[in-house]
Specification:
Blueprint (H helix, E strand, L loop, with lengths): L2 E11 L4 E10 L2 E6 L9 E4 L4 E4 L1 E6 L12 H10 L2 E6 L10 H14 L3 E6 L13 H6 L4 E3 L8 H13 L4 E3 L4 H4 L4 E2 L2 H6 L3 E2 L1 H18 L3 E3 L5 H12 L4 E5 L1 H5 L21 H13 L4 E2 L8 H4 L16 H10 L6 H16 L14 E11 L18 E11 L2 E5 L2 E2 L2
Helix pairs in contact: 4-7, 7-8, 8-10
Length: about 425
């Protein structure tokens, strides 16, 4: 049995409340021992991680892999490589592929291809409704048995409150989480950015914050009525955060996530007409950014999720109105969170790691997000001093669509370990 000893790192594990310099011994695919001054032996591979931070492997709740059907944007292989480079040992992939992941056969395809590459754990999310048309719900029991980790029609709002109520009721029977993309299409219309001063100045159609907030409120109320579980995807508005805060105070089963671009950028970034700033929900105002950060800090927002949405270069090199929305986010998530949440003191190290690992694992109901002895050795190692510029040409993702090109960021992942095996080291995939 292979043995790997990680020495002298700062072990940060929110599941145990640990943040201290310790060693970790990995035997096979399990964490065998976490303690100070573990003695090395000849049969162990020993890595000195002095000055580095050792955390449970990151888990991304919200990733668009694109395969099957849109392999010109991303494949399971390139998406897995991007995830591993970003420090993610697990990703939950959305079902808006072609065909839609709404049946057992399509789920099996995702699982088989993910297992072939064995780079990161891929947790497929199945569609709430057939064809994501918002009308007829899918076979939740069959989908769960086939490996669906959750349900979502992400990319599209379920316009019918009655269908959403039925979905929550039915999902409750199988203890499945529904992840909601909150956007009232009748209000959003043909908008391409946040409705406000900047949209007027730039002459671009706007999407009002209310389009998101109305559906957040509706779906939380339906979760309260049905006693089902709801997770609000990519929260972007201050009132949205407040609605979730009030719901949690009432004991409603709601969790929520925020994406890095929503706690870093405002709608002012659109002034360049760079289509890499086009994302749904759109970049909002500085008050919204502040609310997102506060929501992460006080636990109203449970997790950081990338909403990784890669696109081909030619798809983004068009007029702003015609470009597809989305940012390629797996490979820049940690340094953005490190620089804009941890370094300014908005989140402690334990809180940051919880948002990237422990809480996502809890939301998905998977036995990950911990460094407890006896658990699977999924581990991320961070170099808190590493500073480099974002270079999209170095991405493993096929999607180079990032508004952070050229940004100098601090705090990068330097090692990703899945099932006790090193999958990434110093930014490069280990063959």
């Amino acid at each position: 049995m292979s043995m790997l000893l990680l020495k002298n790192g700062l072990v940060v594990d929110p599941s145990q409340g640990i943040s201290e310099k310790m060693d970790i011994l990995i035997q096979g695919d399990k964490i065998a021992k976490v303690a100070k001054n573990i003695e090395a032996s000849q049969e162990m591979k020993t890595i000195d991680l002095t000055g580095k931070v050792i955390t449970p492997g990151f888990i991304d709740l919200h990733v668009h892999i694109r395969e099957p059907g849109f392999e010109h944007k991303e494949t399971i292989l390139t998406g897995s490589m991007a995830a591993v480079r970003g420090g993610f040992t697990g990703i939950a992939c959305m079902p808006n592929t072609n065909p839609i992941i709404d049946n057992e056969g399509n789920l099996e395809l995702i699982k088989a291809r993910a297992n072939r590459y064995n780079l990161t754990n891929i947790y497929p999310i199945a569609a709430v409704t057939k064809g994501q048309k918002g009308q007829e719900i899918t076979e939740y029991g069959i989908l769960k048995e086939a490996g669906a980790i959750a349900l979502s029609d992400d990319g599209l709002n379920i316009e019918s409150a009655q269908v959403m109520r039925k979905a929550l009721d039915y999902a409750k029977i199988f203890d499945l989480l529904i992840i909601s993309h909150c956007e009232d299409q009748s209000l959003a219309g043909s908008g391409v950015m946040h409705e406000g001063f900047m949209s007027t100045k730039l002459g671009l159609a706007g999407i009002p914050a209310l389009a998101e907030e109305m559906i957040i409120d509706r779906d939380i109320r339906l979760a309260e009525l049905t006693k089902g579980k709801i997770h609000i995807a990519h929260v972007s508005t201050r009132e949205g955060v407040e609605i979730i805060r009030r719901a949690k105070a009432k004991g409603i089963k709601v969790t929520a996530e925020a994406a890095p671009h929503h706690f870093v950028l405002t709608h002012e970034a659109v002034a360049s007409y760079d289509t890499n700033t086009k994302v749904y929900p759109p970049l909002r105002e500085k008050e919204d950014v502040a609310a997102i950060i506060k929501g992460l800090a006080d636990g109203t927002l449970d997790a950081i999720a990338t909403d990784h949405a890669p696109h081909a270069r030619e798809e983004k090199e068009v007029e702003y109105e015609l470009a597809p929305p989305g940012i390629s986010g797996l490979e820049t998530a940690l340094p953005l969170a490190w620089q804009y949440l941890y370094l300014p003191g908005h989140l402690s190290l334990l809180e940051l790691v919880a948002c990237l690992s422990t809480k996502p694992a809890q939301i998905l109901g998977i036995d990950r997000g911990t460094l407890q002895e006896g658990k699977v050795a999924d581990i991320t190692v961070i170099d808190p001093q590493k500073t480099e510029k974002v270079d999209p040409q170095s991405f493993y993702s096929m999607g180079r669509n990032t508004p952070f090109k050229g940004w100098e960021l601090q705090g990068w992942p330097v090692m990703t370990i899945k099932d006790g095996q090193i999958k990434m080291e110093n930014g490069r995939i280990v063959e």
